[in-house]
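ENTRY TYPE: protein
WANTED: fold as tokens:
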Amino acid sequence: MVFSNKSLQFITALLVACLPIVTSANPVNDSVATTVETTHEKVAHDAENAHGESNEPKDIKTEISEFINHHLMDSYDFNIMGYKDDSGEQHHVGFPLPVILLDNGLHIFSSSKFHNEHETAEVDGNFYKLHHGKIYKVDSADGALTLDDKHHATNTKPLDFSITKNVFMIFVVALIMFFLFRGLAKSYGKNNSIATGAGRFFEPIVLYVRDEIAIPNIGEKHYKKYMSYLLTIFFFIWFLNIFGLTPLGINVTGNIAITACLALITYLITTFTAKKDYWGHIFWMPGVPTPMKFILMPIELLGTIIKPFSLMIRLYANIVAGHIVLMSLIGLMFIFKNWLGSSLSFLLSFAISLIEILVALLQAYIFTMLSALYFGSAVEEHHHDEAHEGHH
């Protein structure tokens, strides 16, 4: 894979264009002003409810660590911000999401039934409790969860098809992409193939994906059938990464289940559109002594699985690492508690935020580029016979 000067110029120009929109964003789930105070109370309360024992006050480093872990997790409600009133009572601003369970029938109810991990939700005669972000079934309204030595619940887990925060954001991004590119397509028809409105910004990006990613890696002959997927995956990952930099506490592409599904789709498209030459080079590599073919065959076959696995890990690890670094730097402000240390932490957080804007685009670019590279290898045509005759 070669990054041309044109590619780097495009990424740089796009970064500059995006800076005014997102530079003021930070990735904290709740408002920064109440982060430490609310985290201490929430973590202590949740731990007490989950394990049935009172917790001693924790040091601030532990609180920050547990708050970061809480931020990275998915949730059954969309919490926008939190604040304390004059009496010191904590309030959360957000909205519940639908919980969909398959447990001796279909059960659909609002996540508002789970006020916290201590309370039990009763639905159609069944009782459910939350434990570390998962739903478990209990015997009664006063029933308790059974925990093993590692504090993992051993109760039955119903099949969960709930619309969680991550799923909700996937739907939001899907709608944004649908209306955005539907409008772009309509503007072509109305204005003699000239984009209008927001389409003027996104048209060069679409052409870039075609001319600099799809055609060089797949070829003029076959690239068109992959364009719809490449454009979808590029904008899907990019938009979700940008949403992840906002104060809404969204971590979709930092969820390994999401990145695994994206990588699986790339793997399936590569596998089911591959030509016989692709499989010939895997199972019976030409130009190699026969004994070596038996050795190379399992290695090449394993390589077809390692490629999408690397796609999954690369996207997941980069996004999660960015969230952890940013929130850790913000947490340092509350550890230093002085103007010098807190100011340095703020400046570092700001600098990392700017880098994360580039990473958000770069990860979408790399995932799309590598997918196109795999598609190109799957449809590449080899002419071994002609090459062999030309050699002689």
